[in-house]
Amino acid sequence: AHMPETNITKRESATHFSLWSVLAAPLILGLDLTSAPPWALSIISNPEVISIAQDSLGAQGKCVSEIETGAMVGGVCTVGTCSHTQSFLRELEGGAFAAVLTNRGHRYDQESDQFRP
Question: Which residues contact 39 (CB under 8 A, 6 or more apart)?
Answer without folding.
Answer: 10
